[in-house]
Specification:
CATH architecture of the largest domain: 3-Layer(aba) Sandwich
Oligomer: single chain
Helix content: 40-55%
Distance between the termini: 33 Å
Strand content: 15-25%
Number of strands: 12
Radius of gyration: 19 Å
Strand order of the largest sheet: 2-1-3-5-6-4
Number of domains: 2
Order of helices and strands: EHEHEHEHEEHHEHEHEHEEHHEHH
Structural class: alpha/beta
CATH topology of the largest domain: Rossmann fold
Length: 314
């Protein structure tokens, strides 16, 4: 990682792996103009996956000390950054403390604040494509491949007590790392919910195929591994079989998107609804921009930014 030079004008950062390839680099200036922010810059900071703790600490300390560095969105590194540098923050929101991850860095009154926005943005994204009453009507379950911050956020939303009976009775979390599964088990155990969590060690795509084969009709299948974007491949093999009437969510919106294409090939036969990560991308970024620049982005304002984003994608 190479830290940027001190900001010469108000600047927001994007901490990720391959930030230069993200649509946000072209979209952010258009959004900033629409929001009347006065032309702040966005700068990417690329960090290799699971970098050394001092890399994350240096990055956070730079933003904290640099006057015109206003904050950052964090992707991929949310859990690692929290573990390495949470003590550098003056305040952390309840989601950040509960799930031990940071996706938003901002400043207020000279204090550095860390937030976990994924439980909010994932919920808003799910509401956009999961029909009301889906879980009770279909008896479907949720299978989430990956145990990082996005996976835990989706689990939190789906299992929240406020959802009443409109939630799956079981969420199956798979990962190739036993340490990640153990951490997920500990964190999700803090949620007071009747939803049952199952944790499956799946070191190979064939292992995920086997878990997928046991999912009932109407189940939600999520790729939260990062495979297909930051790293090539899919968590499934081409021989995997999706559940009839399933909801398939590819959290990525760019890259090879192998998982999404596997689902699309079965879309008609299995009556699948296939969703990519574009709406999740929009909600994730607008939530953090609102925090960094201390402006509300909701209602008509969000609709306007969504329209700009959709036009750029086309």
């Amino acid at each position: 990682m190479k830290l940027p030079a001190s900001a010469a004008s108000p600047t927001m950062y994007f901490i990720g792996v391959t930030t230069g390839q993200s649509s946000i680099m072209k979209l952010f200036p258009l959004w900033a103009e629409a929001l009347g922010l006065g032309g702040p810059k966005i700068v990417g900071i690329d960090i290799e996956i699971h970098a050394q703790p001092e890399v994350y600490r240096d990055c956070v300390q730079f933003i904290k000390d640099d006057p015109l560095s206003l904050g950052a969105l964090v992707t991929t590194h949310k859990i690692d950054l929290y573990q390495a540098a949470s003590d550098l923050f003056d305040t952390l929101d309840p989601y950040a403390e509960t799930f031990e991850e940071i996706s938003s860095i901002s400043k207020a009154g000279g204090r550095l604040a860390g937030h976990a926005k994924d439980p909010i943005s994932s919920g808003l994204s799910l509401e956009a494509f999961v029909p009301p009453g889906h879980w009770k009507r279909t008896g479907g379950r949720a299978m989430i491949m990956g145990a990082g911050g996005s996976a835990l956020a989706i689990c939190s939303y789906l299992a929240h007590p406020d959802r009443g009976d409109d939630k799956p009775d079981t969420i199956v979390l798979t990962n190739r790392s036993p340490q990640r599964l153990d951490a997920a088990r500990e964190l999700l155990g803090r949620i007071d919910t009747p939803v049952a969590f199952e944790y499956r060690l799946c070191p190979s795509p064939e292992d995920n195929d086997a878990v997928l084969a046991g999912m009932p009709p109407g189940s939600l299948i999520v790729n939260a591994t990062g495979l297909g974007k930051d790293r090539p491949g899919s968590p499934l093999t081409d021989g995997a079989t999706f559940p009839q009437g399933g909801l398939v969510w590819e959290l990525n919106y760019r890259g090879e998107l192998d998982f999404m294409h596997q689902a699309i090939r079965q879309k008609e036969e299995k009556r699948l609804h296939v969703e990519d990560g574009w709406i999740y991308f929009i909600h994730g970024w607008t939530q953090v921009i609102a925090e960094v620049f201390h402006i509300p982005i909701e209602g008509e304002t969000f609709d306007r930014l969504e329209k700009i984003a959709m036009a750029q994608r086309k």
